[in-house]
Write a structure and sequence with these properties.
- A hairpin with a 2-residue loop joins strand 18 and strand 19.
- The protein is globular.
- It is built from no helices and 28 strands.
- 0% of the residues lie in helices and 48% in strands.
- A four-stranded antiparallel sheet has the order 1-28-27-26, with no helix packed on it. A four-stranded antiparallel sheet has the order 2-3-4-5, with no helix packed on it.
- It is mainly β and 349 residues long.
């Protein structure tokens, strides 16, 4: 391999559940910034919080926001950072990270009961999806309040683990017992398509943990779930999901791992070996992280390219949208890892 990637591990004082790049700001005196959801079970009620971390020294937080319970989802938009929790609450911080200006939606009967796993920003509104089977749209009201509107209540018959916007009016959700669902607000805020995945092909009962949708191919979802399973779902052929990785797929896709795939993202840095144009039917390269400590790039009909193999779970990762060669990941053993890929890092010898 030419120009191998470099990896730096930064120890923290607490377990790291989730990590995200914050939008770059030329006015930040600390340079590039990260947001991390951390948890310390030895610290009592103040065990969970969101830290603002400088990339130059992630071990020295610039600011912190306490959470009422452990963070289960973390997303950022140009205007705010949002964190959802295991107790069903949702918390917003403005991009200035002024904790005095933070607002929240409390968990409970009027919102979510239990963990909120799916969270994403669709412009003016956020979507939340929880283990309680509820789906909400959350946005600002004219009087400055944050208002949540319920779209669906599965009443415990199904639970959600992931949500992702495709456009201001379309988003996808996934979880246990529901596969992947496609919602279209132009059609009555309803599910308009559903994919049960590839769970019936010799694989254990499936759980969707993560969904991503490519900005230039909004009809294609990539899904990560149980037993190393990663597949793509193309709305043009909704009954024919495309396996990219998994155990028990009869040789059609080599597994990148054999455990839970916690997160998947389209890899905007890796150039596919066979993408000729945006009209190509080939699935673009995907990055994943797993419970058994694998960070890898998965490409259709290719062997997985392993970037990291850690001795602990990689709970989440994020690709810097301004510098896609840089990847930050949350290592369960109380540290954050920063991977920098060289221009030719993905080229085989």
């Amino acid at each position: 391999m030419a120009d191998s990637p470099s990896f730096r591990r930064h120890p923290l004082a607490s377990s790291v559940d989730l990590v995200r790049w914050l939008p770059s700001s030329s006015t930040s005196p600390s340079g590039r910034l990260l947001a991390a959801a951390v948890h310390d079970p030895t610290s009592g009620p103040a065990a969970s919080s969101i830290h603002l971390l400088p990339l130059s020294d992630p071990g020295s937080p610039l600011a912190s926001l306490p959470l009422p319970s452990r963070a289960t989802a973390l997303r950022c938009s140009p205007a705010a950072l949002a964190a959802a929790t295991s107790s069903g609450s949702l918390h917003f911080l403005p991009s200035s990270f002024d904790s005095d200006a933070a607002v929240s939606v409390p968990g409970g009967a009027g919102f979510h009961v239990g963990p909120v796993r799916g969270l994403d920003c669709g412009g003016e509104e956020w979507v939340t999806a929880g283990e309680d089977g509820r789906v909400h749209l959350v946005g600002g009201a004219a009087d400055g309040r944050v208002v949540a509107r319920r779209l669906w209540d599965g009443k415990g018959m199904s639970g959600y683990e992931a949500a992702r916007w495709a456009s201001p009016v379309e988003f996808a959700t996934g979880g246990a017992g529901c596969g992947v669902q496609w919602w279209d607000r132009r059609k009555g805020d309803a599910v308009v398509a559903q994919c049960n995945g590839i769970w019936g092909r010799g694989i254990v009962t499936g759980m969707v943990h993560s969904i991503d949708i490519h900005p230039s191919r909004k009809h294609i979802c990539v899904v990560g779930g149980s037993s190393g399973t990663i597949f793509a779902w193309d709305l043009r052929w909704p009954q024919q999901p495309i396996p990219l990785s998994g155990v028990g797929l009869n040789g059609t896709a080599e597994p990148a791992c054999e455990s839970e795939v916690w997160e998947v993202l389209f890899d905007t840095y890796t150039q596919s070996s066979d993408i000729i144009s945006s009209a190509s039917a080939r699935i673009l390269p995907v990055m994943m992280c797993s419970e058994d400590g694998i960070l890898a790039v998965v490409e259709q009909d290719e062997r997985p390219f392993e970037l990291l193999a850690e001795a602990c779970a990689i709970n989440s990762f994020d690709i810097d949208p301004q510098n896609p060669s840089d990847v930050v990941c949350a290592l369960e053993w109380e540290s954050i890892g920063v991977l920098t890929r060289g221009r030719d890092a993905m080229a085989e010898e």
